[in-house]
Design a protein that fits this description.
Blueprint (H helix, E strand, L loop, with lengths): L12 H15 L4 H12 L7 E7 L5 E8 L14 H10 L3 E5 L12 E10 L2 E11 L6 H66 L7 H33 L7 E4 H15 L5 E5 L5 E4 L1 H18 L5 E8 L2 E8 L32 H11 L3 E7 L3 E9 L10
Helix pairs in contact: 1-2, 1-4, 2-4, 4-5, 5-8, 6-7, 7-8
The site of adenosine-5'-diphosphate (ADP) has 21 residues, from helix 7 and helix 8.
Length: 411
């Protein structure tokens, strides 16, 4: 069996034109159904038929109609039409052209009851990929010349399907390759991030253990402090990695409950100040008590992250926290007057592992913080966005749906 379209001998000039027009549709094919519509439209100019159905092979001996058009007589009564399923079955079993007629012989009866079928195999590579069935109501019957012309049409439609399958296979392969690349990038980034603190820990621990060195009390304390800090960093990194993969797979457990957002922000600020006395932090609560449905631990994680980013990237700036309402949402802003984020990097800052390039190497981070923040806020049916003027500062906006009075208890 072959899927090659035969040389167009024995076709008249108009038929040849139509076949060439069809082959042009096949070569620039983009969307399958639209291309089939175009081909069927062209075919109708040289070939009479009322219905056309394309059956494609599924697994084993199953086949399904994948395209059908009622064009001529009977297009107003599509549901009652014969769609030539038994003919398609025959074509697929015998793997050859089937011509059949169902005639009542009673001319006083409805002409729609006289049906003429032409079924052609659709051959893709060496396989019988399906069947193309043309139906005529009330004649004329299909002659060998008609069959010959229909073979060209079927040949081109088979090519169209082959082309579509190839495109699907290629995009599947490309998606698999892309996934492999992402996994490789992930492993490389994670290994790099884990190795840095591990390197410090190993280096300072080995130094402390050296027999030939006699470290004084202060140096020993300094080395141990570094080991302590790097261990914290390693733990934070592993926690972040775990959170991010659980958020990615949707397996991070959230414990939602009514939360007073104004109280939470006030507590958070007090806590941040108690850890760092020099921290310049201002809270401006513009609204009366506001309740949202939230997991308090996870929401605090987001707020902590934004404060610690402001401290890291805008060390000399005041961190301003504002709570207001926006439509039926609580609107929380975290703003600093630090270096800001370049406009071209701003759209990427919530992407996993993204860090603004060329920033000071002494500011350490993994690029996971904001990714985790956005996922957590999305899990709260909220939104987080960033606004920044390079050189002037950055503001993060968080919007969380306010609980209506009936759904929460008063506090
Ligand atoms: P990390 O801080 O671990 O690098 P994040 O996901 O928290 O990762 O932040 C992503 C990037 O966004 C940071 O690397 C930094 O370049 C930029 N960024 C975040 N917050 C600020 C801020 N307040 N000011 C300037 N740049 C910021």
């Amino acid at each position: 069996m072959t899927n090659k379209v035969r040389d167009p001998e024995n076709l008249d000039a108009q038929e040849l034109d139509a076949i060439y027009a069809i082959s042009r549709v096949v070569t620039r094919a983009s969307e399958l159904e639209a291309s089939l519509d175009e081909i069927i439209g062209i075919a109708r100019t040289v070939f009479i038929f009322d219905n056309v159905v394309l059956y494609v092979h599924q697994q084993a001996d199953r086949f399904e109609p994948s395209y059908a058009r009622a064009i001529g007589r009977g297009r107003n009564s599509e549901s009652d039409l014969a769609w030539g399923e038994p003919i398609a079955k025959d074509v697929l079993e015998k793997e050859k052209i089937v011509v059949r007629q169902e005639i009542t012989g009673d001319f006083t009866k409805d002409r729609m009851k006289d049906r003429y079928f032409l079924g052609l195999p659709l051959v893709s590579g060496d396989q019988n990929a399906g069947a193309l069935v043309f139906v005529r109501y009330g004649g004329p019957q299909f002659t060998p010349e008609h069959t010959h012309l229909a073979e060209y049409i079927a040949g081109h439609i088979a090519q169209l399907y082959e082309h579509g399958n190839l495109v699907t296979q290629l995009s599947r392969l490309e998606a698999e390759r892309q996934l492999e690349r992402l996994q490789d990038d992930f492993v490389a980034t994670v290994s790099h991030e884990l190795r840095t603190p591990l390197g410090f820990i190993k280096g300072y621990a080995t130094s402390l253990l050296r027999d030939d060195a006699n470290w004084d009390q202060d140096t020993r304390r300094e080395f141990l402090t570094i080991i302590d800090e790097e261990t914290d960093r390693l733990k934070e990194l592993i926690d972040n990695l775990l959170d991010s993969s659980r958020l990615q797979s949707g397996t991070l457990r959230m414990d939602f409950q009514p939360v007073r957002i104004d109280t939470m922000l006030r507590d958070l600020t007090l806590r941040a100040r108690s850890f760092d006395e020099d921290l310049n932090i201002e809270v401006n609560l513009e609204t009366s008590p506001l309740k949202v449905q939230a997991d308090p631990t996870r929401l605090a994680q987001v707020f902590d992250n934004l404060i610690s980013n402001a401290v890291k990237y805008a060390p000399d700036s005041t961190v301003k926290i504002t709570l207001s309402t926006h439509d039926d949402h609580a609107h929380i802003e975290f703003s600093d007057q630090g270096p800001g984020i370049p406009a071209e990097d701003l759209p990427n800052i919530f992407t996993r592992f993204f860090r603004v390039p060329n920033q000071s190497r002494s500011i350490r981070g993994s690029g996971l913080g904001l990714f985790i923040c956005r996922r957590i806020i999305h899990a709260h049916q909220g939104e987080i966005t960033a606004e920044s003027n390079y050189g002037e500062g950055t503001t993060f906006h968080i919007y969380l749906p306010i609980m209506n009075h009936e759904s929460g208890e008063d506090s």
